[in-house]
Amino acid sequence: MKLFKTILSIVVVLSCCLDATLAPAASSGNPTRKEQRSSLPITIKSNQLSADNMGKTAVFTGKVVARQGDITIYSDRMTVNYGDIEGEVDKVVAEGDVRIVQENRIGLAAHAVYDSKQGQITLTGNPKVMQGTDSITGKTIIYYIDEDKSVVSGEGDSRVNAVIHPSPKKGNADAR
Question: Is residue 30 included in any domain, yes or no?
Answer without folding.
Answer: yes
